Q: What sequence folds into this?
């Protein structure tokens, strides 16, 4: 290690040992500011060295307010490190929750410095990915299968349902033909998700149902009636309900128990 890395590591190691000998039972370690002040070094330089030491496995980073760096892990700090990846355990993290998670990560204050562009976007996007351009959501049908396998292998194969899955599209009136919305995109969306869900069921996953969002075009808190989701078209002026192509298609699927 370079000299500055030796100095910072040795100080952190000594402080962790001191805290342990003093009987401290919760998180043991130091903040960047504490180390920088004690060693009369610039905080940004200390931060860079600490991150390098984390990368090579010499020390651990416990995220929080403020961030703690440690050499010795207590039971509490081990649990804190496990929780750092909690976003990765959320069902829907790559679907409807993706933008919410990005916003949550971006809003988390970084006591080590200003927010950088990396706080606001993911560094990788799947080439050729499918997108619902009206909602800004990626369409990844296999996610239904991945969720099912995850629940089977890691959560005791509990009974569960897909509570909502849908395709919101703006200005659906442009797809009207002979008085009916020909929403082939919604048929494709549902069919491709059900194919993966059927595969999961064949492999023993305990999924009991699939709920579409939504039965009829509904009002949204975020965009009112801008995007339409339903099997049934709702005319806001006349309140007339007209079944879309997808509505007739899902009726046949239900009657035939397949497609």
A:
């Amino acid at each position: 290690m370079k000299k500055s890395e030796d100095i910072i590591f040795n100080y952190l190691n000594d402080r962790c040992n001191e805290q342990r000998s003093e009987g401290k039972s919760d998180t043991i370690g130091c903040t960047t500011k504490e180390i920088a002040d004690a060693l009369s070094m610039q905080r940004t330089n200390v931060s860079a060295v600490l991150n390098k030491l984390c990368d090579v496995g010499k020390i651990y980073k416990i995220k929080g307010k403020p961030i703690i760096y440690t050499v010795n892990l207590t039971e509490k700090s081990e649990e804190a490190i496990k929780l750092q990846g909690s976003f990765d355990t959320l069902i829907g993290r790559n679907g409807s929750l993706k933008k919410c998670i990005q916003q949550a990560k971006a809003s988390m204050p970084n006591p080590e410095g200003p927010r950088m562009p990396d706080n606001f976007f993911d560094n990788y996007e799947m080439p050729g990915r499918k997108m619902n351009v009206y909602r800004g959501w990626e369409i990844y049908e296999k996610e239904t299968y991945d969720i099912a396998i995850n629940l089977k292998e890691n959560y005791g194969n509990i009974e569960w349902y897909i509570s909502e899955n849908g395709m919101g599209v703006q200005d659906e009136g442009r797809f009207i033909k002979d008085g009916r919305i020909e929403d082939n995109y919604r048929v494709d969306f549902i069919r491709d998700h059900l194919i993966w869900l059927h595969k999961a069921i064949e492999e023993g996953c305990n999924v009991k149902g699939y709920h579409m969002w939504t039965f009829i075009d509904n009002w949204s808190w975020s965009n009112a009636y801008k995007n339409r989701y339903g099997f049934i078209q709702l005319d806001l002026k006349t309140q007339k309900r007209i079944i879309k192509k997808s509505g007739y298609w899902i009726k046949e699927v239900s009657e035939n128990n397949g497609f």
Q: What stands out?
A: The chain has eight helices and twelve strands. The mean pLDDT is 83. The chain has three domains: 3-83, 86-120, 132-256.
